[in-house]
Structure formats: structure tokens, C-alpha cells
Amino acid sequence: MQIPREGDYVAIQSYKHDGHLHRTWRETMVLKTSENEIIGCNENTLVTEADGRRWVTREPALVYFHKKYWFNIITMIRDSGVSYYCNLATPFALDKEAIKYIDYDLDVKVFPDGEKRLLDVDEYAAHSKMWNYPPEIDTILHDNVDVLIDWIDKGKGPFSQAYVDLWMQRYKELSHH
Where is the DUF402 domain (predicted)? Predict the structure, then answer.
């Protein structure tokens, strides 16, 4: 697969451990690609759920995917402030169809005031039992929650205002907003 270039649009597909498609974002503009990461932005993009429900995102959202970390980060730019939704998931894969990853249920939400909340612990426990997540997955995910919390606490990468400002500016330039 040819790596998408700055300004290209890609789809994002989230799967579950058993292989079923969980959620699809139709269009995300690529802002940066490197050997290990992809940064993009989507706004008013169609999202399709596994059950067929469809909705459109309301605010611009920066997306951050990394080849080495078991999480991805969605930075939501709202009038009320910046909030984050972090999916505990496999590192991304890229093919001609989309950016793809397996979503492992656990999420960390960061509110504009800095409050952090670990979400969907019950869903993770239920799916772990139902789909027999291997013990290594549990270890990897818990280690990556620790990395994520450290990034949040230190304002690293997507959790810094400079990152948000830089990539939103680049999105505006490329999309002629």
C-alpha cells in the first residue's frame, strides 16, 4: 500500500477481537505520515456503526495512530474546550481500504478540565470472557493504559496545546477553511 500523503483522505475501520467490523469513519484528511505514526483530521464525516446506524461527527477531531502503541487518540475540538477519547487498541495497520485496528473496549476519556476517566471496564471484561482474550492482551493493554496516563499527565504529544494548534492550523490550510 502506498502511504497516504498530506491532504489525502482515508477511511478508518475499527474491528473487534473476533474480526467483525465495529465502526467506520468515511473520510479523514491525512495531515502527517511517518514510519510510525499517522495524524489526521475529520470534521462532519459519516460514521457507520456495526448495527448499521449512521451519524455525522459534529466538531473537528484530530486523530493520532502509532505503530508501536496499543492506543489511538481522538482530540475533539469543541467550543467548551478540548477533550480526548483514547481507544485501547492494536497498533494501526494500513491497506488500500483504510487505516485499521482492533478496538479492545477500554477507553480513557479526558475532559477539558483535565479530569481523566477509564471507561467500558465492564464491556472489556465481558468481551474478554466471550472472545477469550489471551492473557498477553490484558498485560499489553494495562501497560499501555499506564503509558497513556503518563502522556496525559505530562501533556505529551496529542495532549499538548501546541500539538492541537499546529495540526488544526495545518488542517485549515489544507482544507481551505
Answer: 18-156
> Does the pLDDT at position 177 exceed 70?
no
Catalytically active residues are: 23
**pTM flag (> 0.85):** yes
Residue ranges covered by each domain of the chain: 8-176
CATH number of 8-176: 2.40.380.10
Closest to 119 (Cα-Cα) out of 152, 155, 86, 159: 86
